[in-house]
Each structure stands twice: as C-alpha cells, then as structure tokens.
TrEMBL record:
Record's keyword terms, sorted: Oxidoreductase
Entry-linked PANTHER family: DEHYDROGENASE/REDUCTASE SDR FAMILY MEMBER 7B (PTHR44196), DEHYDROGENASE_REDUCTASE SDR FAMILY MEMBER 7B (PTHR44196:SF1)
PROSITE patterns xref list: ADH_SHORT
Bilayer-spanning residue ranges: none
Protein name: SDR family NAD(P)-dependent oxidoreductase
E.C. designation(s): 1.-.-.-
GO molecular function ontology, one term from the record: oxidoreductase activity
Catalytic class of the enzyme: oxidoreductase
Family statement drawn from the similarity comment of this UniProt entry: Belongs to the short-chain dehydrogenases/reductases (SDR) family.
Source organism: Kitasatospora cinereorecta
Length: 267
C-alpha cells in the first residue's frame, strides 16, 4: 500500500524511506521533552539528551535518551560518538539558570553556565557538521531567549550567556554557507512551563481572580515591553521548529521570534 492506501501495481515496489533523525538537548522536562515527544510522534527517530536520569523524565520509550551534564567539560568529548551519524535536525534547547544570588557564583560556576548555554551548542554543532556527508542536509535550530535585549543584576549572567549564544549562532550560519546546512535561532519570550503556570494559578486562586488576569499582571510587571498577554505555549514552539526545518537552506541565519515584541519595533 502507498500512503494514500492504494495497492501497488504489478512489478511496482514500495519505496522505503528512512525515518529522519533528530537530536534534541534539554529533554529531561519542559520544552525539550515536548519537542522530543512530538517529533517522535511525527515519525522522527529522536535522540534526546538531559541532565536527569531517564527514570525522572516522562519521555516515551521510542525516544532514545542520553544522560549528560553539559557543564562538565568531559561531557562534550563523548557526545559525538554517542550521537552517532549527524542527525537531519539538531535542536539546542538545554539551559542552565544561575541562582538568585549571582554574586556568590564562583568562576567555575560561571563557566559552567556559559558552557551549557552557549559554548557546548557551538562546539557540538561544529563537530556534527564536520562529520556530515556533503550531500546530506542538516538543519540546526538554536533556542534562545529575549533576555539578550535587557538585563538587570539578577539576570545579567544568564542574559550574557544567551547573548554569547546569539553571536556564536550568527557565526555558525556564516560557516554553513554553501555547506548544505542551515543554522537558525528560535527566540522565545516567557514560556508556559508547568511550574510557572502552577504558581500563577495558585496566586489567582488566593486572590479570587482568573488565571488569565494574573498572567496579564505578571507579564506587564516582569516584562513591561511585551505586547502579548499570555505565556507562549510549548506547541507554538514545536510548530516553529518544524517550520524552520522545512525551510531547508533558506533558513540559514534566520531568527524566528516568539517573544511578544520584547526586542523593540526596530530590531
């Protein structure tokens, strides 16, 4: 049978199409777990990477899972061999957040945050693209944050690591010119992660108002430059990753923004 359910005629053979392969970092929970799960549901052969043990994730069994701490300098040495052949799609989603008291961070801890948020995505992409057969296309989607446009003392370390990621992503896009690959940025505003949604719902219940009203107040106070009044849902991010990957080489150097206008109207 073909995809339309029609029987093949005499002498015809069904064409075997190998499933495309995807590699997604930060798949222990949150957006990364949703991305890996939805790609697997779409028929991709997915390898996910996360810091937590597999038993602490909700990933479906069809997702191959690698456990690694990207803040460990030794982790990167082993990853290319564990991943194997360069995937058709690479999504860099892993993230490390500093503690509230950033003044207490040691230099090693600062380096660990930059390693997860910017240095490992850069180095690993170079390694995987170098191993890619020239005829095989590879799409790389780098998840970044609107925090690159503004920072205060508490968020400065995180914002700086993401700003470094943005610059390195731009350099990777230049590297990919005429290499049958594309490196693009998915720039995100505040996400509707379960923990944040639960906190806002609890506040709404205590105040006797709707969750939507509390969410609007939260966004206006924490992100006064946003033009959206709701958190960005995971499925919108999944659709954006699919869109970028489907663009092929046209997506090289692209920035797809789901940040509610937080970068300003002229940027």
């Amino acid at each position: 049978m073909n995809q339309a359910g029609n029987q093949y005629g005499p002498g015809e053979e069904q064409e075997t199409v190998a499933a495309k392969r995807a590699f997604v970092t930060g798949t222990s929970h949150g957006l990364g777990a949703r991305l890996a799960t939805r790609l697997a549901e779409d028929g991709w052969q997915v390898t996910g990477l996360g810091r937590r043990p597999r038993s602490e994730t909700a990933l479906p069994p069809e997702v191959r899972y690698l456990q690694a701490d990207l803040s460990d300098p030794k982790a990167l040495d082993e990853l290319p061999a564990l991943i194997g052949e360069t995937p058709d799609l690479i999504v860099h989603n892993a993230v490390s957040y500093p503690p509230r008291d950033v003044s207490a961070l040691t230099l090693d801890e600062l380096e660990g945050i930059f390693r997860v948020n910017s240095l490992v995505p850069y180095r690993l992409t170079l390694d995987l693209l170098a191993a890619k057969p020239p005829e095989r296309f590879c799409s790389v989607v780098v998840v970044n944050s609107e925090s690159i446009y503004h920072a205060d003392f508490a968020s400065g370390v995180y914002a700086a690591s993401k700003a470094a990621l943005r610059v390195l992503t731009t350099s990777l896009a230049d590297h990919c010119r005429s290499r049958n690959a594309a490196v693009a940025t998915l720039l995100l505003g505040p996400l509707a992660d379960p923990g944040k949604v639960a906190d806002l719902r609890a506040v709404a219940e205590r105040r006797g108002v709707t969750e939507a009203e509390i969410t609007r107040l939260f966004l206006r106070k924490s992100n006064p430059d946003l033009v959206i009044e709701q958190l960005i849902d995971f499925d919108a991010c999944v659709r954006s990753v699919r869109y970028i990957a489907d663009l092929g080489t046209t997506a090289n150097g692209m920035m797809c923004k789901l940040d509610g206008g937080s970068s300003g109207s002229l940027v």
